Structures are given as C-alpha cells and as structure tokens.
Amino acid sequence: MAHKEAKWVANDILHLQYMVIWAVLLVLTVVEVIIPEPSLVGLEAFPRTFVILSLIGLALTKTILVAGYYMHLIGEKPAVIPIACAPFLFSVFLTIGLFPYY
Amino acid sequence: MNLANLPGFLAPLGKDSEKSLLTYLLEWAYTTDAKRIGVMYILFAAVCGVIGMILSIMIRAELATPGLDLMTDDLYMTLPGMHASAMIFFFIIPMYAGFANLIMPIQCGAPDMAFPRLNNAAFWLLPPAAIFAFSSYIVSTAPQFGWTAYPPLSNSVYSPQLGADLWLVGLIIVGTSSTMGAVNFLSTAFNMRCKGMTLFQLPLFTWAVIVMSFLVLASTPVLTSALIMLNLERLFPETFYFFAPEGGGDPILYQHLFWFYSHPAVYIMILPGFGMVSEIFQTFSRKPIFGYHVMVWSMVGIAVLGFIVWAHHMFTSGIGLYVRMAFMFLTMLIAVPTGIKIFSWLGTLWGGSLSFKTPMLFALGFLAMFTIGGLSGVVLASAAVDTQLHDTYYVVAHIHYVLVAGSVMTLFAGWYYWWPKATGRMYNERLGQIHFWGTTVFLNVTFFVQHYLGVQGMPRRYADYDPDFALGNLISSYGSFALAAVQIVFFINMFISFRSGERVGDNPWKDGTSLEWTIASPPDHHQFHHPPEWIPVERHHGDHHAPAAAE
Amino acid sequence: MISKRSNRLTKATLFMGVALAALLVPLIAMAIPGTGDMISIHSPAGREISDLYNLISKICLVILVIVEVVLFTAIFKFRRRSDDEMPAQIHGNLNIEIGWTVAAAIVQVYIGWVTIDVMSRTDKMPETEMTVEAIAYQWGWQFRYPDHGGMLSDDLVVPAHKNIKLEITSRDVIHSIFIPQLGVKMDAVPGRFNYWWFNADGPVNQVLADGYERVDVTTEKRVTTRPELKSKFQWLYGENTFNGRDTKVKGLEDRVTYMAQSRKVEEVSPYAKYAAVEYDGMCTEICGKGHWNMYFRTVAMTQSSFEEWVQDMQSGSGEVSGEAVYSAKCSSCHGADGAGSPPTFPPLIGTEWMNEDKKNEHIEVVLMGSKASTLLGDTTIAGVTYTGVMQPWGEVLNDAEVAAVVNHERNSWGNSGGEVDEKMVADARKALGLPPFPAGGAAPVPDSELMAEGENLYAACASCHGNDGKGLTRVPNLAGNTTLLSDVKATIGILVNGQDKPNWPGKKTAIGASLTDRQLSALLTYMRKSWGNDASAVTPSEVSRLRDEVKQ
Amino acid sequence: MAEMVIGPGEESFGVPNGKLGMWTFLVMDAMTFAGFLAGYARLRWKDPLIEGTAWPNPYETFGVFGIQLTALNTFILVCSSVTMVHALAEVMRGNMKRAENWLLFTIIGGLIFLGIQGFEWTHLILDVWPYLFDPTHSVDYNLNFAATFFALTGFHGGHVSVGVIYNLVCYLAIRRGKLTADDGDFIEVAGLYWHFVDLIWILVFTFVYLI
Description:
By secondary structure, chain A is mainly α.
C-alpha cells in the first residue's frame, strides 16, 4: 500500500526524542502540582487568577506535547490536523456560551 | 416472487439462502454491504415514521375540539414528547443515514464503506434503542416531559416512572449509533474516493453527508453527556445534584447542553435534504448546479454557525440581556447561507429545461414551502418577538414547516429519485403525483393555521385549550387526518412497483451525471467490478452524457 | 400537464394568472390580521413587540413573494418543451452570488439592529412602582405581594397604568408565566428569580381613566360550558372567534371566564365588583400532567379599587369554602371525586386517615405534604404503592383554608371523619415548628430569606453600629441588647420614630418609616439572630400590626 | 475480476482508514468530555453567596497527600503513554519481542492507574464524603463538587479500562503472532486511543484536582 514506504527513519533518534518529551512532561506535572499550593516548596501563595491561567496554560502545553509527539501529529498528513483540533474549537464555543451572565 | 430472481445486491449470496427465507434474512442481518445496510436503515425508519405519524394523529384527534374528550391528560402529555422523539431520532436521521449508506459510497467511487462491520453494528443499535424508547408506553407511563426533558421535571422526583429511564437510555444508544455512522461516512468520504474524484468533484449529496457527519460528531456527544448527567441524577439523587437547585445545581445548565446538541441536530436533519434536492434539480433541469463552490461553502457555513446560536431556544429562560442580544444577532447571520442556497437553487432552475417527474415535484414543493419555514424562523429569531411567541403554536408551525415541508419532502423526493436505482423498477408516475399534490395541500392546511393560533397566544403541549382557538384547531386536525390518509397512496405505489414495476436501465432519468447512474440498477454486490476512474469534467450534461466507467 | 396546442393568448393569460396568484396568496395571508398584529396590545412593551413583529413579518413576506414569483415563473417559463432540448450549461455567476449574499446579509443585519433597539426598551427593567412575586407550583400559580405584608392571592391583581415588576420563581419544576394580552413571558425556574415587567395600561372599562374613552362592552353572551359543544359551528359566527384583533375589551360583567376543567365555570368573575379588566394567564413550559390547566387571571384595577381589594383580602372577609379550595388545589391530583389516580396519587375515600382519631395526622399531611412524618417513604394503600409527590400546602393555605379543605375531605364522598377547626390547625403548625399563618395574615416567610435580606439592609446601619454589632464608642451595642431581644415593640418605635439621647454622638434617624413591613421585619430578624443573639424571628404581619400602635 | 480490497482509494488523504476513523472517533469522545467539563465549569461559576454553593478548595478536600498521590497517578499514565510509543517504534522497527514487552509495561501502567484511582474513590466515599450513603452527615460546600468529581473521573476511568482491554488484545495478538511487523497500523491506532485517554486525564486532573 502507498503508505508503507514511509519507513520510520532512524528509530534510535526517536527513542531519545520520546525520552526528552517524557522528562518535559514529568517536570510540567511537578510544576502543576506546586502552583496551587506553593507552601510545599516554601513560597507564599500566588494570586488566584495567575494560578488558574498558569494551570490551564500548562495543561494545554502538555496536551499539545502529547498530541504532537506521541500521537505523531507532527509528521502527520495535513488533513488529520484540523480533525484533531476541532474539539478544542467547539468546546470553547460551549464554555463561553455557558458562562452564567444572568 | 421467489428469492432467486431478485436483481443485483438484493439477490441471495449463498446457495442455501435462495431456498429458505430465514437464511436469506439472516444473510441480510449479518451483511457488511453498505447498500443492504442502507435498505435496512430505510425500512426501519419507515416503520418508525408510521409510529410517529400515528402518535401525531392521536394528538390532533384530541385537539380537534376543546375539552378533554378522547383521552386523559395523563396519556396526552406523553404524546408530544414521544411523537417528537419518534420522528427526530428514529425517522428522519436514520432515513438520511439509510440514503447516505445506499448512495454515498457509490458516488465516491468507493467499493464499500471504510468500516463495513462498524456500519452493521451502527444499524443494529437502532432497533434496540427504538424498543427501549417505545416500550416506555407498555412498561409504565411514558415520559411526560416532551422530547426536551428539562430537569427538574425529568428528574426522579417529578417523573419517577420507569418509562422516563427507558426513554433516556434509548436516546443515549441512538446517539452512539449515529456517531458510529458519522465516523464511517467521514472515513469513506475522505479516504476512499476513486481516481480523479477530488474533494471538489464530489456530488453535493456526498458533501451534505460529510457536513452532516461532522455536525453529528461534534454535537451528539454533548447530548450524550447531558443525558448521562441526567441519568446519574435520576439514579443517585442524593449524590448527583447537577440540575437540582437545592444541591447547588442549575436547571439552565441542562438546557444549554441540550440545545448545544439540538440546534446542530436540526441542521443534521436538513442538510442531507439540501444535498438530495441539489442533485434532483440538476438532473431534472438538465443543468449543473448554480455555483457549486458557493453551495459547498454555504453548507459548511451553516454547520459552523450552527454551533454558536443555540441559546435562541432559551430566550425566555432568564439568561442575561446581552447574551440574548448576542445569540439573536448570530442567529440572524445564519439565515444568510440558507438564503444563498435557496437563491442558488432558483438559479439552477432558471434557464434549465424542467421535466416534472415526481422527484422534481417534491423538490419544487420543498423549495416553495421550506422558504415559509425559514422565514418564520427569522421572525422567531428576533428575541423581542420571541418573548411573545416562544412555546406557542407559532413555534410548532415553524418546526413543522422546516421539518415536514423541509426534511420529509426531501426524503420523499430522494426516495422517488433513487427508487429505480435501488430496485431496478420504475414507480407509477400518476400515483406519485397524487401523493405529491395530496401531501402539499394538506400539509399547508394543517400547519399554516397554526401560525395564527400561535400569534393568538395558544401555548404548546396543551391537552385542552381556551375555546377561542377551537376553529383553528378544527381545521388543523382535519388537515392532519387527510395528510396521513394520503401517505397510504405512497405505500401502495411502492408495493406495486417493487413487485411489478417496469424494469429500468442504468440511467432511468437519462440525465443523471454522478457515478451511481453509471452502474447497473440495482447495483451488484460489489458495485464497481474495477476501481472506477472519474474523469474530472465540469459535469456537463448532453455532449458528455455519462462519465467513462473504465471497464 | 399543459396541453401542447394552447396558443399564445392563453399562454399569456395563464402566465399572468399564476403570477397574480403567487402575489395575491401571501397578501391575503397578510390581510388576515392574525399575522399582522399580535394580541399583546394592552401594555406598552407588548405594543412595541407587536409593531416589531409586524415589521419583520412584512419583510419576510416580501422575501417570500420574491422567491415564490421567481420559482413559479421559472417553472412555467423553462418547462421542457421537447425531449432532446439542451439548456445552456452555465455553472453559476459570481457577481450574482455576491449580490444576493450581501443583500441577504443587509436584510438580516437590519432586522437584528431593529430588534436590539426594541429589546433595549422592552427587556430592560424600568423603575417600577410595585413588585409582585409570582410563584409557580405543579399546576397552579400563587402571587405574593411583599409590599403589602406578603399577602397571597391566586390571581395577579395589579393597579393599572403602573410599572409592575414580576419576580418569577417556581417551587418544583420549570414553569413559565405567560399573559398574552400583556406580552408577559418568562420562565419560572426553581432556585432562582427571573424578572419581567409590564404596565397594564389597557382600557379599564368602568372608570374613564385619563385619555381612554369608555369602550362599549358588547352584550353577546358566549357561554363556553361543555354541553354547548353540540353546535360546534356556532363558533364560526361567534363574535370574537377568528377576527383576531381584540377590538372588544373583554368586559367584566358578561365575559364568562372559561377556567378549563379544574375551576368551575364562574358565571360572574369574583372581581366583578371592582373597576377592573381581566386578562388570561397560563403556563407555557411543559410541567407535567396538569400543564394545560394552570390558568390564572391578571386583573388590572384602578388605584382606588386596588386598595379596596387589598383591604378585602387582608381582612379575610368572606368565609372560605372547603369545596372551592379542594377543587382549586387538590382535585388535579386526588380527582374531583376523591378517587385519586393510581399509581401516582392516592384516593381519599375510606383511607385510614379519614377515621375519627387521625385528625391531627390528616392536618399534618396537608401542611407538610410528602415530608409529613406519617408519609415517610411511599404510602401503600390496599396493596398499591403511590409514588406521587405532594406539595407542602402549609405555605400556601392559611389556617382557615386548611381547616375548610380538611373538613371537606372528611365529610364528602361517604367519609364521616368529624370536624376540624382553625385552632387545631394553628396548634399543629406550632407543634411542627412551622411559622404561624392565621387567616388574613401574611404568608410565613422562611427565616433564611429574612436573614439574607436583613443582612443587605444592615449594611446601611454598619457605619455606626459596626459589622459586629458592637458599634463605635458611646453607640448602643446591639449584641445582647436587652430592648432588641425582649421588647420588639419598643425597638420598632425607635426605628420608626427615630430617637435622640444626650450621650449619643448623633441623632438616630427614623429609617424605619421608609422601610416596608417586610424589610423592617427582615432587619429586625437579622439583628435578633446574629452576633450571638438568639431571639425569635419577627414576621411582617407582626411589624405591620405593631407599627400602627407605635406611630406617633 | 480483481478482488476489490477495501483500502484507501487513489484520492485518499494518504492516511490509513483506521487512523482516520480513530481520529474522528476521538473528536466525538473529546466532545463528550467537553460536555462534562463545560457542565463542571458552569456549576463552579455559581455565585458563592447563595449558601451551600461555595466550591471547596481541592487541596483541603483531598488533602496534600491526596493531590500528590494523584500527581503520581498522572505520572504513571504519562509513563504508560511513553511505553506505548516505544512499543509502536519497536513494531515499526520489526522486533516484535521488544514491542511485546513495552506493550506489557503499558498494560501494567494502566492497571496501576486504575488501582490508585479505585483506592482514591473508596477513600473519598468512605472518609471524606460519608453523606453519600448516610444522610445524617452533611457537608457545607457545594454538593456538586463530589458529583462532578465522580462524573468526570468515573467516565475517564471507564475509558482507561476500555483502553487496557484494547492494549491487552493487541498484546495477545502479538504474542500469538497474529500481528506481525507490517501490521503497524493496528498498533498505531491502539496507541492513538491510549494517548487520547492520557491527554484527557491531563485536562481532568488539572480541572478537578488543581484548580
């Protein structure tokens, strides 16, 4: 089938790449745990909006990392990427619409 | 009619299934052939359509005269909800899925759907879901909270009956089945198109199915999550308080989630209809569609805008003033792509050479009356007017003009259009026209009157009403009885035609230009003996009569 | 279809006939006032909505006519003459497409703009003179008048020509208040208040209100009782069937109010003796079995007759008939004949509660509904378990009404369970810890509501008395204040008349005078129950009684 | 007559059918979680003045140890994502033996995650929220904190168990030799689902546990 020729190039580089991404994810998780309760590392509490925004930002970066490298979206054919990003768009519509403006 | 000489894909495959009907039916049950699954979807949807129609006749019979004379309000209150769910979830959407299964793989030049076994599983989720939903009448009182099931009416305190649980589970299963179908349609359309059939060579019906599948994929799961939340709250009332105000919940949350699904759902219920009508106008006016790219992008426009307008169903639920203004303005914008499509169809008709066979009659009837539905939608969209007209019979009139004069008319048009292709036999033209004129006239008699009832202030889902509205309801009831009677002509026509209609060749309408008119009718099990090769051509009629199917 | 040999003349006339029909049909539709004008013409917002509806309908009809005319001309002009006819294969024309896209967009934006303009006037809440709380419950409405000591009424009675603010909520499921003639429509969602306003400035027929001439009330009697239905087509020629525009003001004396099944068809409306006009009100959000039966009346009265009505209601004049209360509140579940509707609502005939010694349990069931101690878990009578939920009617019915309905149930349909009087009901309320609700008194306001309101009101006092009630130097300390806790009358006296003691830093202003009974009772309840004080709540009816005695 | 194999046509996007099907399925699944998360967001935005709707701070309710345990849980799920990717890389490279082992680690990672999640549920139901089963207890904060917690983590837990079964099927197929080196697509699609489950957990973990 046409798809087979794209052999995975130089697999050992890939291994290293996965490990790097794994380490980054680990660090981000640790940071995420510390931000809402900085007293764990002796800092005093951050302002509430900073906590929320940074947590959401970190979560999204981790999501993009996993989707990009582990789900091979990086080297994927361009047609799949809009399909992959569609749910983010629609969930943003839903969440904005749901805000209780009263 | 012994089984052996059934033509094309209807013919039994195995030796022993020729002899015994049971094995033949089992063969159909396990089939992975998209055309057979399409036929099964259509038959299932037709049965549920009849059930829905019977429920609507019970409603109109009760409302014919003021006063609760035919049934108690206990039974009546179940009818609007069950009529709506029967029609929406078990008639219109499965019927469109049936035509999509039957026609779309052929139009793409694909041998079959991308995941044949998933296709079969998606169909076989529907009958159990229908049994779940309709058995609520037998097991205990059916749900009395309409098809919208707003909590707290739909929670375990105010509708404790088992029927409500059954209905909810039935709906979740239907949602899963239609998303499975959508996954299949998208994979087939994107991945299995034959040589030369690029995305912008696809016929408009296939484009409509693609856009419908995307709508299904992104909206049905939100309904599933809303129904799961409601079910959790019904089963464990002390733990889950999603929609119970005393526990910190919010009933408006359910309405938001429900309408986030249900507005794209109304576009799911009309877009394939747009696709069918575009195909029929091209064939019967011997002219390519007016503005192919505009038609495709307006369908995509309707789909995307469809996701950001849902709160116009909740104008009177107490959401903020500026939220209402925002959603009202977006709803106004969504009328633009629909308007473009209607004008493009008029452009297709203009300058063509129109032949008035039954499919064309239904398509023209659709175009004439769907405009009324669309415009009463524009009237309802303006939030100030909606405060007076919300949940009155004006909304019922708008719903039925858009759904009956919209989706059902396109379904009839598609049925008559592809009946010769699917069965190899021509229907009786005279009966078809009687069916068309009967449906059109009685449809208007039934539903146009309801505009006035709504403006006069007659609320929806009422078992009994103030006698001021007696005359309007009388006319509407007589119209609906006649509308139901005319459908018998349709079934007679189809039975006669299947048994003894005259046989037709590959291109019965002589002007079909898409791939399905190049293969035998009914197509064989594997419709394309060799992968077809579509010569990208501006789909001219006439000189280039039928695309070359490389033998 | 069309015969081949028709010559040019007939073809032309045929074409003209069709084009004319395509034009006339929508115009005829337009002529029937149903589409042109709404019936919500009895309030300014309603009139504006009606005019907006008129405008949008006209725009839509113009578009409809264009589409239909183009469609029908295309059908007749381009019908296939000969079989091998081949039309020009055009693929669309970009500037036409851009043209109608822009045209459609402009029309939509215009409609959107006009609607936003109207909404800014109708949906925004103007300053209102009176507030009425509309409380929906399963299959009925109840209106509380906080400005008149929390008085309860089954009909929305308001002074005409005044901006009325409706605070709409529900006690169980989602309902929706809908008064078509006044253009009022808002959902009643449990757990939150939705707000709407209206000003019933329609013609009040008895008194020549300023600028409105007396509208003659036609005397045609339109009896709507069921046996009349034999002559169904009598409606066709009836005066107000289908001509849409409600020119005739539904005069009070002769309009037989059709109150569907639950309420008897009253020959003369109970508001006949006031100078008023009536409009129907109903529910439009599906709320279960009795959704179709939640009629109430909106009665717009002149100011003088409104005060007269308030006096009548508060003095509780007129003895309460148990049968009327039963048919209004209980028959939709327990059936007019007391047989109930298995398996949801239990029958009342011959059950154990009816015999002699179960009087108090019967009262408790009526007061507490499903939460009554005797009803914990599903009630099973003669083997059938009943899952229906019963309203706690104690909040809705006062002692006289409870006694009347209990007596009615105990002595009809063959039951003979003896008599019950108001005092027993009042004692039962005290035993159950429910706030007292004597006949004519104000509906008991739950303490939590009073506390919440009191807290907001106290913000004004905090500047001197401090948030903790201790207050600044030499300002009386409210925590543990003896007069506040023991002598409510003296406290009201201070608040209503103000006081000036030599050693106080400032004069105590008479803020109580400007507060309504409910606000004053809320403030007192808050002060008597916070900062360690634990005294009983003060009800609005008590405040209104003491206020008169104390006023100098 | 050449047997028509049901594979991608000439004009396909160059993506195997399975992957395209799985991605469209993941769009659907993500929207289900979007429905739950939007519901969670709306329930949380209730104004805290109304008594009984104040949202507790997750750190106090779960306790610092609870949060750290869940962070470990997230880390385990990320590890199982990594082992899944390695398994896929090995299948692509052809030595199925190593791929089999990596897949085994993925399954074990999934099971550990479910175990910790189960432990946390029992701990929460029995100790932190006894009001669930015995009405005498009560909690002053918004009851929907527990409701949304159970809905989100329960629904995600269901997806993880389906993912573990899915991986188990792949693992047995490789062991029995049913899946050979050139069946990379099958494993890749299983990997897609597993990474999706991990991705959703990252979002659910942030919203339910941290914010």
